[in-house]
Amino acid sequence: MTLRNSRIAAGILGALFGAPLLACAQGSVTIYGVVDTALVYTSNQGGLHNTYLRSGNLSASKIGFKGAEDLGGGMQAIFQLENGFDTNTGAMSSANTLFNRQSFVGLTSASSGTLTVGRQYTPYYLYVGAIGPTTVLTGATGAHPGDVDGLDTTVRSSNAVTYSSPVFAGAQVSALYGFGETAGATSTGNAYSLAAKYNVNAWNFALGYQHLNIGTGNTSWNSSTATANIPSSAINAGYQSANSAQMIAAAARYTIDKLMLGATYSVAQYRPGSGSVFTQAVKFQTAGIFSTYQWSPQVALAAGYSYTFADKGNGISTAANYHQLSLQETYAFSPRTALYFLQAYQLAGGNTLASNGSIIDAVAAVGDSQNSSASNGKSQAVLMFGIRHNF
User: Fold this and answer.
1) What does the pLDDT read at residue 216?
2) What does the angle CA 39 – CA 44 – CA 48 come to, to the nearest 5 degrees?
3) pTM of the predicted model, to two decimals?
């Protein structure tokens, strides 16, 4: 739904306030959103199967506002405010945070690029994640296990400044810095990210990096200690006390007619600090492939496979590893409304660390839909049948 200032309204307001409002006549505000819910079956959540309703599967349920105003000379002022919510309860995705997903304002120009300030996704996610598996397989069942590499929407940076260059011959770069805002310790709780993408003919390429700090002496990632939080799940529970995390990832896609083929590779490293329950840095490496096929104007099919494996060390002799297979079928009634079917299976092996630092068997947790409801064993299957409506 788009609301545009009309010349009549501008004239009336100008008469009331004694000044012309010509710039307003060239501005716009868009209200947009997604309502998404599904019936879900999970084979193992803590040792028990479960059937329940879950919001935000094919797409996150959200409502947002974005706008632009023409400032002349090819320059525009822009803003975006976006809140996530649970369709089934009406609750906000983050308590006490109205615009938890995005909240920024900035300036943009085709010749100079874009500068934005506020709560934002990192260039790492916006460039690499955009051509990774979650945009075609969804993060719910298609994100790499526990979203350990942050290629889904897990990582956002508050107090952040982002610059994105103009597009030149299909190439673009972007950089972000999130201020930790700790007096006398500028690196405490800060974040930074750099990414590049290149689109040429049927090919899409992206490479990205992000570094997240919690700060000396802190062992709990939250908004009071860091401008951006690391993903949290059973996959990396033993490394939640990390002092810092860094992630690097690359992705590529090739599209020919109705078929798209893609691949990703990522490395997520967690480094210990003085208060960590682990002593040696650990890397989670993930390699994945995925594909989509537009069977008909209404029917789209997608499939993906990923393999995630961690380092040994910290007393672990058999490193954790995770195989994950994800499938998706979507029927679009219209450009805005679709039914979807999601299926995923994950098989875990090896050992990892529990949140207290003890060595345990790795357990399965599909995508990022099961981050807080992992299996109590090595396997987990998830089935979803839902509906999504965009507005």
Assistant:
1) 66
2) 95
3) 0.90
